[in-house]
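Running this now, will post back.
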Amino acid sequence: MTESIATPTAKRTLGINEIKEYLPHRYPLLLVDRVLDVEIGKRITAIKNVTVNEEFFNGHFPHQPVMPGVLMIEAMAQTAAILSFMTMDVKPDENSVVYFVGIDNARFKRPVGPGDQLVMDVEILRVSRGIWKYKATASVDGKVAVEGELMCTIRANETAPAAAGQ
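Update: finished.
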């Protein structure tokens, strides 16, 4: 994959089937339900509908269900990955892997629970030497739940199984 960045003109929405074309994640770790708006090369807004049926609520915490902060960060990272792939004008294949490089200034402002809709806003701050840096915020009802700066890199998975017959 190259670091080419598509022209930042297209805006569009994505449903779950289109999201699955950009992310390898599946239940229970697919944490983006819909992309509301994309400005290629610049920013994206997506949502995660949080339901009581989420697997993590069985243990976190049954008496007062709270979405784990690490999963809110993961939801923002998945949103960032969609933006990056769309910006590069590529869809990942079975060898594509997005790795965290760093998380800076993460702050958790309010709990998120069943019935909430997590709205994730991610903006590309820069791309340099294969490292993407984003400003990410997730909110519920217009109130920030978590924010931070995410850094990721996209690599080919060197441990991917060889194709049949090779």
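The helical segments are 16-22, 69-88. More later if anyone needs it.
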